[in-house]
Design goal:
Number of strands: 10
Strand order of the largest sheet: 3-2-1-4-5
Distance between the termini: 23 Å
CATH architecture of the largest domain: 2-Layer Sandwich
Radius of gyration: 20 Å
CATH topology of the largest domain: Nucleotidyltransferase, domain 5
Low-confidence stretches: none
Strand content: 15-25%
Largest sheet: 5 strands, mixed
Mean pLDDT: 94
Order of helices and strands: EEEHHEHEHEEEHHHHEHEH
Helix content: 40-55%
Length: 351
Amino acid sequence: MRILAIESSCDESAVAVLDRRKGLLAHELFSQIDLHRVFGGVVPELASRDHVRRLLPLLRTALEKAGTGPVDLDGVAYTAGPGLIGALLTGAALARSLAYAWRKPAIGVHHLEGHLLAPLLEPDPPPFPHVALLVSGGHTLLIEVQGIGQYQLLGETRDDAAGEAFDKAAKLLGLPYPGGPELARLAESGRPDVVRLPRPMLDRAGLEFSFSGLKTAVLHATREQPLTDQRRADIARAVQTAIVETLTAKSLRALEATGLDALVVSGGVSANRALRERMSAAAATLGARVYYPRLEFCTDNAAMVAVAGLARLEAGEHEGLGIQARARWPLASLSAVPGDVLPSAHSSPSA
């Protein structure tokens, strides 16, 4: 099976071609960061309009690089939700129209399932079952993953997501959009333990998160002393350390609670180097191993959509003629996919 996949849930326009045996043949991505930077965040209407401009050229390039024409494809996958509804509709309309014109089945993919399955593109994919920490600007979830489509929520954030906490703290420090990566860079020159920030909900049992109080603590820290360059770097390091320690501690609790020894960390925040280093070292103390997507597949991309779409198309799922797009879509509502649907990881091109 060979499929075309389209991602347009927020501010990344992306297209990929995935082959069941040969692996990832092509993936193209255009980021709208420069478009939205002047506004300090994503403007939904501008995102939708830019997807309209970018997706077709990206599609042509991906098909050309993959040496693939419509006759070679067995289906079309697209992100159907959750996400910005206008942005989702641009990708869904294109994907569904192509599938109809080419007489191929189409499948709408859950965006979070794509993130959960992104590590399956690696040469050494995670085993099932495992615990997954899905951590991004919009989500912080701990999930027990028994198989594709078999997801049990263990814990989630009560308010801000970890990525949102990174971005809000960065804004308080006067850093440009997108704030998370900028804060991580600034934290490298910060001094350890100069600024102490709370570790939200670590003193309570359970696997839930809360990061809104951390944002308030950062606000107070910016006002306690003059905000020199070194002070900003020290606060940035304290923010990163607080978030990383909280995510790590809760993830280890989840491993202990489930008795599993494999942990997947995915989503945009999984690209954070400090998080990877601390999480891997901490998991090793439990005899557990951590699996990550490669950096280019941590943020939104079409390769992860292709993995989820291929699995569901192979299981016989497909959409009707209508265009499906959902701003909200519970992960627990997905059906289980039976059998071995892991794609080959070789022949995977770099971005």
